[in-house]
Automatic annotation (TrEMBL):
Species name: Opitutus terrae (strain DSM 11246 / JCM 15787 / PB90-1)
Protein name (Swiss-Prot/TrEMBL): Outer membrane protein beta-barrel domain-containing protein
Superkingdom: Bacteria
Listed SUPFAM superfamilies: OMPA-like
Keywords: Signal
Length: 184
């Protein structure tokens, strides 16, 4: 049993020693929600098999919407503003193809986590959390060996949510985004 623990410890430590840490930031547009989406991520490129690089990353995403509800048939003192804030916390896996003769790389990945929603309508406010899944694909260009710029498409799926005692069911959105990634 002791030998097995030592083997696991040494293999894990050698994998982490060989891993390349990175940070990244994304700015995008949610097509269905018609609002911006911003995220920050930290990750590790933990394995390379030929031209395929495997990575794990933690990501925090944020989006905010606001709509003024002004109906000329309703007196102005009853006009309201609806606001929604979304903060997602995701654990992602990504596989990146890095052809040796090119500065371009191509990635596919997915993630899971939770999204916190804060919704307000006039004086009323509600907060909820929902299980979240995502799939992502993109292309990156290596400006330098450590800095990459990219573009991606992300699909987000949110589990069922109830606000103000009304069930909205599950929802989804597609995000078009740009990205920067800096390796250490």
């Amino acid at each position: 049993m002791n030998k097995l623990l030592w083997i696991l410890l040494l293999s894990t430590s050698s994998m982490l020693f060989a891993a390349t840490p990175y940070v990244g930031a994304n700015a995008g547009y949610m097509l269905d929600s018609e609002t911006g989406f911003y995220s920050a991520r930290m990750g590790l490129d933990f394995a390379r098999r030929g031209i395929v690089v495997h990575a794990l990353e933690g990501e925090i995403g944020y989006s905010r919407t606001r709509s003024d509800q002004r109906d000329p048939m309703i007196p102005p003192q009853y006009w309201t503003t609806a606001r929604s804030e979304m903060t997602s916390f995701l654990l992602n896996y990504r596989a990146t193809l890095e052809p040796s003769a090119s500065r371009f790389s191509y990635s596919l990945g997915g993630g899971l986590g939770t999204t916190r929603w804060n919704v307000s309508q006039g004086r009323f406010e509600d907060r909820k959390e929902a299980f979240t899944l995502q799939a992502r694909g993109g292309v990156e260009y290596a400006m330098t060996p450590k800095i990459r710029l990219g573009a991606a498409v992300r699909y987000l799926w949110f589990d069922e949510i109830t606000f103000f005692s009304r069930d909205y069911g599950s929802s989804d959105d597609v995000v078009l985004e740009t990205a920067i990634r800096i390796a250490f």
